[in-house]
Amino acid sequence: MKPKRELTTAAKALVQAALLGSEAETDVDRFGASLALRRRAVPLLDWLVDTWFRVRAEGFEELPSGERLLFVANRAGLLPWDSLILGHVAARHGISLRPLLEDSVYYLPYAGLLANRLGAVRASPENATHLLEAGEAVAVFPEGARGYSKLYRDRYRLQRFGRGGFVRLALRTGARIVPTAIVGSEETMPLLGKLDGGLLGLPFLPVTPTFPWLGPIGLVPLPAPWTIRLGPVLRLEHGAEAADDDPLVLRVTEEVREHIQSLLADTRPR
Amino acid sequence: MDREHRVAIVGSQSFLGRGLSRRLAARDDVARVLCVDLRPPEEVLPKRIFHRADLTRPAADRELGDLFADERIDTVVHLAMLDSPMANLSYAHELDVIGTLRLCTALRSAGVSRLLFRSTTLVYGPRPQNPAELPESWPLPSVDDDAPFLRDKRAAEEQARRFAAEVSGAEVAILRFAPTVGPDVSNWLQSYLCLPLAPFVAGVDPLLQVIHQSDALDALDFAFREGLQGVWNVGAPQAVPLTGALRLAGSRPFPVALPLARAAAEGLRSLGFVPALSPALLDLLRYPFVADTRKLREAGFTARLTTGEAVRRIREGGEA
Known about the structure:
B: seven-stranded parallel β-sheet, 36% helix
């Protein structure tokens, strides 16, 4: 258990960054992540991982070193808790992991801003390529909006994987694909229904057991235990030219999806 | 460069125009600096002559064409464009877009093939889809709901690119400057950063890239000296969050919810306090338009000040 003081300091720094913006000493990288804020948030992230979500991480030790890594994971919940936790767990294993968030999440007021300062990057092929070339690992959530807008009864049922942008990326950059199953995230914010969020500029207004009934407090995720499990790393041996081969890209996309689906099936919620 | 240049600077009373005309007049390989503006230069320099012209006048193309031919001008530097949105949209369009068209027509009729055109990174537009750093090859958006200010900037650059494509032997450099800050420039961003209390859109904080006036002038000089051709991003390295930039400039940012900010912008405009403001311009404070400056770096020019340093010296390093 962390001293309470450290946690409140970390929380204060985050709230301050979200409400009032950056301090004069700006140390963001070119994708908007602030090292200083990350460092100050560590106690809180540690607490979320160890105490709140009691994350069990499996398979990080077997990751190859010195390779470009592209984590491909399932997604749940409008707020990107999963990308935050995955990023921090990876950081504790010595991997600088940058989650890519799609526009509707990246541009959420406050939440998107904080996610960005803590390391998340707007999903785009250009950004992903630059990150991988700069030696960072990248995490993608190819279900996109279909992932976080599925209802609780469809939990862990992987949705369609877009148009295979991540496979093209892996082919072009030679990155290894790391199939990633995140289990527990669906239970922390079970989506029971959706209300129209157009007025607030949101894709939808989530209805969970606690939200909107408890107001903003209802946005606090439930403390379900998480398991993050990595499958064996996939090497695509087709070469960079294969990125323009649509049938191949779609086939590989589907294969990766099935890998992750079976990984999810093998990982029971605790 | 082996021959003697005869250069016309259109918009010679702008900060860049003043600086460049002084530098060119001091060079041995420049025989003539023709300053074109609405106002004459403050001091008289050898080699430098002034001609008053107004690009918004319909006959400006013929007038300048004759002048360029008489003066045997070989290079035109076009700096006469708006730095800030203005309320009179038709005048703004007339100056930025039609003015550039008239100037390009003058170049054609006088047979001038070399053009340095000051463009802006605003042509990329503040857009949610922008990658972290925009390369020169990024396709420019054509969106009708953009603020007219941004549309005019794109259309003006389009004129310069048409000139480059259609005139055989044309040597055109299009320099896309990040918003310029410094004590001697006046534009929307300079005014915004110098507000003692500055509103920002609550919940967002896009990265901002600027260039300090001294670096902007050096870059223009570099482009002239090296005979650059094509499109070049010119900006300071290391973009900073908008609120961080405000604090570095000594301002105190305060958050305003987006619907309220829109209403306030509309109110300030219609009541005549800030007639040039429009809600569409709020996007400048919501989305990034940071340019990738690798191409210019590899050509040999790097801005000395980062964005943070430039903003910190927003009131320092003037001409005097």
